[in-house]
Automatic annotation (TrEMBL):
Pathway this chain belongs to: Glycolipid biosynthesis; glycosylphosphatidylinositol-anchor biosynthesis
Subcellular location: Endoplasmic reticulum membrane
Family: Belongs to the PIGG/PIGN/PIGO family. PIGG subfamily.
UniProt superkingdom: Eukaryota
Pfam families: Phosphodiest (PF01663)
Leader peptide range in chain numbering: none
Keyword Cell wall biogenesis/degradation (UniProt): no
Chief localisation class: endoplasmic reticulum
GO CC entries: endoplasmic reticulum membrane
GO molecular function: CP2 mannose-ethanolamine phosphotransferase activity
Membrane topology summary: Multi-pass membrane protein
Protein name, UniProt field: GPI ethanolamine phosphate transferase 2 isoform X6
Keywords tagged on the record: Endoplasmic reticulum, GPI-anchor biosynthesis, Membrane, Transferase, Transmembrane, Transmembrane helix
Length: 704
């Protein structure tokens, strides 16, 4: 089938768009969710029923709140080593003292990628795991409709005040009694963006008409984006945050009531990499500090231990219990037990039972075979043991047996919560691998067909033959169609969760399989034709025996290698290194090709020498036939013109030889101008030298 190159390219583009759409549909699946919040049942489960007739638990409501006022201070891009490392001891002395010797619990919260602000806020307030599609809507931040802590607090009559990043205002509209949002896109602003939050503190801390205060500071994140985590600006900003935390903590302690204490929560939405960016999964980006500070906790004593690691989604469940609210229905987080460790055994068991009941209900709504899940089985065992404990408790048994059994039941609940959370995390963030694989196969087939057609498509004739018609009537095509349809049936009938490609009609699925088979047969036909043409005898021996030069092979191999390298995050972070290698290799190959054409080919090719000799002979014969008498002066002018033309040819030759080396030198200078990426971003470069030079110049001007 003969097609013009434009028609062929347009067809390939449409098929490529189909493959990309299938891949993106699998990579950005519809998230697994529970019922909408307006349909959520408000009733809370009662305690497990004790065995035996006539025994019923009298605790059927949600437990009362544990804290009176809660202040959440979210410091954007706060890494764990900024608090628990050397920077924390140097620039945050008050926070370090509270962590080491005060009434607090400290943890390292692990955030799941993507580590950008809006998905992290969703994870903190809903307890769910947002997907990569939330990165796309991060710029718009539409209102959050699923069940979340802010909505539950608003429904319970809690008065909430917010100051900071306006992403919260967009996610939770009409939820705050008072708010002042600051934009996060002026990354060069380190001061005003935080001063606009702090200026409200003195007035708000004196008031009593609020229950929850949320502060979101952006200055540290802006510093990271501009100059990285090792910037000299990080220290003063951490000291500023430490003073703010000191002011809030002292104010909360001074206004505590005898009945309920207050709680201060310090956390980060994400960290930052060694270059100051975020969004990936490096250790600096996913690990953030999580501090609970309250007079309700026991004062720390003994040597300082390494902070325990928890999930960022655990905060939603813990705050819900602390505020006496229902746990968000979509939460996959676990209750952080030390926060409620000061309560009685019955209260602790009640808290973990509520958490386990919510997780098991979410598992039931999202997994058909939920009864076979290990976490669900462990929860039912723990719930039965809990009922036996309640029976002993209601009978008035206060012996050591009751305490030991309570500890055993608590341990069973914690194991069940951990297993349930793990199962749900896989369910909530499950990718449609089958749709991704089908889309990837289509994309790679079209790419390979385009690469095989490049020599003809770029020729002077903008028309070439597409090797597609013969394979459509071959036995191989029908065999591939049958095989792919069989694979499709096996995958769709054995998959535990229904994928998008399996939900399509059978006619559409068979059409996609026929397309894949046709593309594969076309590729095989094109490859066979290339090998067939390479074996045919050449009419002109002076022409190279291969239509592919070394440069063509290098460009093809480099393109395929670069595409394959994008399958690993480490290669994406250091993609410039791949381009450095490919450009340097291409320049060296070009230099070798020019040397061969300008020196080796002219000296070693006898056909070239014969042609030159015949040209001189014909020139002499022409002069004899016309009886031209060339004077001596004219001969000298002719010699000068000949030498001038030879000089020009020689200069062009040396310029062409020098060009690749000039490009190599320029590339090396560009590499030294500014170090980028992740692995070598900290190494000195020409940009750092210019910055230091300008800084020294400014200091000199200031002196004089």
């Amino acid at each position: 089938m003969r097609l013009r190159s434009g028609v062929f390219a347009s067809t390939c583009l449409l098929v490529q768009a189909l493959g990309v759409a299938l891949f993106l549909r699998g990579f950005f699946p519809v998230p697994v969710r529970s019922l909408p919040r307006r349909e959520a049942r408000a009733d809370s489960p009662a305690e497990p029923a004790p065995p035996g007739p006539g025994m019923v638990s009298n605790w059927t409501k949600i437990p009362a709140p544990l804290f009176n006022k809660v202040v959440v201070v979210l410091i954007d891009a706060l890494r764990d080593d900024f608090v628990f490392g050397s920077k924390g001891k140097q620039f945050m002395p008050y926070t370090t003292q509270v962590v080491e010797k005060g009434t607090s619990y400290s943890f390292v919260a692990e955030a799941k990628p993507p580590t950008v602000t809006m998905p992290r806020i969703k994870a903190l307030m809903t307890g769910s795991i947002p997907g990569f599609i939330d990165v796309v809507v991060n710029l718009n931040s539409p209102a959050l409709l699923e069940d979340n802590l802010i909505w539950q607090a608003k429904a319970a009559g809690k008065r909430i005040i917010f100051y900071g990043d306006d992403t919260w205002v967009k996610l939770f509209p009409k939820h705050f009694m008072e708010y002042d949002g600051t934009t996060s896109f002026f990354v060069s602003d380190f001061t005003e963006v935080d001063d606009n939050v702090t200026r409200h503190l003195d007035r708000v801390l004196k008031r009593e008409d609020w229950d929850i205060l949320i502060l979101h500071y952006l200055g540290l994140d802006h510093i990271g984006h501009i100059s990285g985590p090792n910037s000299p600006l990080v220290g003063p900003k951490l000291r500023e945050m430490d003073n703010i935390l000191k002011k809030i903590h002292i104010s909360l302690l001074s206004k505590e009531e005898a009945s309920l204490p207050n709680l201060l929560v310090v956390c980060g939405d994400h960290g930052m990499s060694e270059t100051g960016s975020h969004g990936g999964s490096s250790e600096g980006e996913v690990h953030t500090p999580l501090l609970f500070i309250s007079s309700a906790f026991e004062k720390r004593s003994g040597p300082l231990t390494q902070p325990e690691r928890v999930q960022q989604t655990d905060l939603a469940s813990t705050l819900a219990v602390g505020l006496g609210l229902p746990i968000s229905r979509n939460s996959v987080g676990n209750l952080i037990l030390p926060v409620v460790g000061g309560k009685t055994m019955r209260e602790q068991l009640r808290f973990v039972h509520l958490n386990g009941f919510q997780l098991s209900r979410l598992l039931q709504e999202n997994t058909p075979a939920y009864e076979k899940d290990p976490g669900y089985e462990h929860f039912k065992i723990a719930e039965k043991s809990h009922g036996n404990w309640i029976k002993l408790y209601l009978e008035g048994n206060n012996s050591e047996i009751l305490l030991n059994l309570g500890k055993k039941v608590l341990k069973q609940y914690l194991e069940a919560l951990k297993t349930l959370s793990s199962s749900l995390s896989k369910q909530v963030a499950q990718y449609d691998m089958y749709s991704m694989m089908v889309g990837t196969v289509i994309i790679m087939e079209v790419l390979l067909l385009l690469l095989l057609s490049v020599p003809k498509a770029l020729s002077k004739r903008a028309e070439f033959e597409v090797p597609l018609s013969p394979p459509l009537f071959s036995l191989l095509f029908y065999l591939m169609c049958l095989m792919l349809c069989a694979v499709h049936v096996i995958v769709c009938t054995s998959a535990e969760s229904l994928c998008y490609f399996c939900s399509m009609s059978w006619l559409t699925a068979v059409g996609v399989m026929m397309l894949i088979s046709a593309l594969m047969c076309g590729i095989l036909s094109a490859v066979a034709k290339i090998f067939e043409n390479s074996r045919l005898p050449l009419k002109n021996p002076a022409v190279s025996s291969s239509s592919w030069s070394e440069i063509d092979v290098l460009i093809l191999a480099g393109t395929i290698g670069h595409v394959l390298s994008l399958g690993a995050s480490s290669f994406i972070e250091e993609e410039h290194q791949t381009w450095y290698f490919l450009i340097n290799t291409l320049c060296l190959v070009l230099c070798q090709e020019l040397c061969r054409n300008n020196f080796l080919l002219k000296e070693c090719d006898p056909q070239h020498s014969t042609n030159v000799k015949q040209n001189f002979d014909s020139l002499g014969e022409t002069s004899d036939c016309k009886n031209i008498d060339i004077p001596a002066a004219d001969n000298s002018k002719l010699d000068k013109a000949t030498s001038s033309s030879e000089f020009m040819k020689g200069s062009h030759k040396w310029i062409s030889l020098a060009t690749p080396w000039v490009i190599l030198i320029c590339c090396r200078l560009l590499r030294s101008l500014n170090q980028t990426g992740v692995q070598w971003a900290h190494r000195p470069d020409f940009g750092h030298w210019l910055t230091r030079l300008l800084t020294c110049g400014w200091k000199t001007e200031g002196i004089f």
